[in-house]
Amino acid sequence: MKYTTLVLVAYAVIMLLSTMLMTKKEKSIEGFCVGNRNIGWGISALSIAATWIWAPALFTSTENAYTKGFAGLFWFLVPNVLCLILFIPFAKKIREEMPEGITLSGYMYGKYHSEAVRNTYLFQLSALSVLSTGVQLLAGGKMLSMLTGIPFVAMTIIMAVIAFSYSQFSGIKASILTDAVQMVFMLGASIGFAVFGVKNGGGLEMLVTGLGGAAGEAESLFSKRGWEIFLGFGLPTTVGLISGPFGDQCFWQRAFCVKEDRIGRAFLVGALLFSIVPLSMGMLGFIGSGIGHVATDIEIINFELISTLFPAWAVVPFLFMVVSGLLSTIDSNLCAVSSLATDIFKEKTLGKTKLGMMALLVLGIAVANVPGLTVTHLFLFYGTLRASTLLPTVFTLKGMRLTSKGIVIGVVSALVIGLPIFACGTILNSGLYKTLGSLVTVLLSGLAAMTASRLEAKNEKHTW
User: Which are the contacts of 198, defined by CB distance < 8 A and separation ≥ 6?
Assistant: First the structure.
């Protein structure tokens, strides 16, 4: 489709021009990684919302509304919003305790003076960035390749190059500025699709009919089907999402960027703005279920519905919205990794931070091209990965006394035991194992860290 190529070109031109006209090329590490710590709350809120609108927010929200009805959308939407709100006091705390900080791994190193702790966190934060980038390239590359005829591998490379082109100019300032532009467009487009979707899809009657999902009986959270969805999807999703910002450098980086007295406002407004997009996309899923649409490819059901219910030209703003949502997360991941590079390399230079960006894109492209992987599987998998550091991070910010050895044991135990259980659940499509894997990952990291820390302290006291 010729329109798709035009959308990609237009997107690249708009983001590059916006960056070059409204920001200056950064020459300092502090400016490149944390924007000199004085970015306003309004533009930060738009950036936070856009960064959180990754592939699942655009695709999985519609898929779950279509297949799992109201219960499926509820257990996707509510934890997504709640996690950003719960993150607020911890974002304020880390800024208060480390006003000159850049990374979560750097904060943990400052607290425990342990390279093992720092490296453990660097592994988790970096791996998350790689998997997150991979899922954006997978979701976007699959659809754009189908529309343009450009091979999938080539499309993932094109998307990566576009995100890098403007991100490397002024770092986090470029990311936040382009995020804001993208978010304004996504809000307008998603609301428009929801309104006209209801109008063209049989009205509110079809929307209400679709609340039960394609299989029916999922319009209630407390029905038998509702409980099945909660155990198989809702609980592991909630665990992964609640821990989301806590295990993602993108959000710690923004906590260090925004003006210190505006952190809470930025994240609260960002959470509310975010909710509009998956809610609107979910409404399309209800309508599709209500009218009895039979999906050809369930993973891109929103695209199918827009192609069916709307005039041909409506595909253009939808594609621009999708590209914006996917690449806003990729450019945020690029900036996150550039900041992590300040902990990885002893010599802190802009060259090293940009090298980290390029390494991320290479690995992200590789992940996106692994045969058999799906967007939903990757989303749930890296959601569990970031849960591995949730409790040690929260305990530390709350002032609980842990030891560096305890933290490493806790996180490694969670990864070694929790992730394989979850992986088995994903392969077997077992809600029980996915839920068990998510809970084990979260709880084991905290319990093992506390237990090991107390035993170490007891042994030291006994030796003394």
Answer: 204, 206, 207, 283, 287
Instruction: Name the residue with tokens 């950036």.
Output: 47
How many angstroms separate the CA atoms of 262 and 360, rounded?
Answer: 31
> Tell me: the pLDDT tens digits for 180-212?
999 999 999 999 999 988 888 778 888 888 888
Output the six-digit token pair for 394: 């929260």
DSSP letter, residue 28: S
Say how far apart CA 305 and CA 197 lie, in whole Å: 9
**Furthest CA-CA distance within the chain:** 78
Measured distance CA(204)–CA(159) in Å, rounded: 37
Instruction: For residue range 306-327, list pLDDT tens digits in order.
Output: 888 888 888 888 888 888 888 8
Q: Could you give the 3-state DSSP secondary structure of residue 101? A: coil
Rg (CA), the chain: 22
Q: And the tokens for 384?
A: 């569990």
Is there a contact between 127 and 385 (Cβ–Cβ < 8 Å)?
yes
Question: What's 36's DSSP letter?
Answer: G
| DSSP state letter for 223 | S
CA-to-CA distance for 245 and 419, rounded, in angstroms? 19
Report helix, strand or coil for 39.
Answer: strand
CA dihedral defined by 344, 349, 355, 360, rounded to 10 degrees?
50
- For the record, the structure tokens of 380 come out as 């749930």
The tokens describing 177, both together, are 């500025």
What pTM does this model have?
0.90
Contact assessment for residue 198 and residue 207, using Cβ atoms and an 8 Å cutoff:
yes
Contact status, residue 210 vs residue 293, Cβ threshold 8 Å: no
The DSSP-derived string for 358-403 is HHHHHHHHHHHTSTT--HHHHHHHHHHHHHTTHHHHHHHHTT----
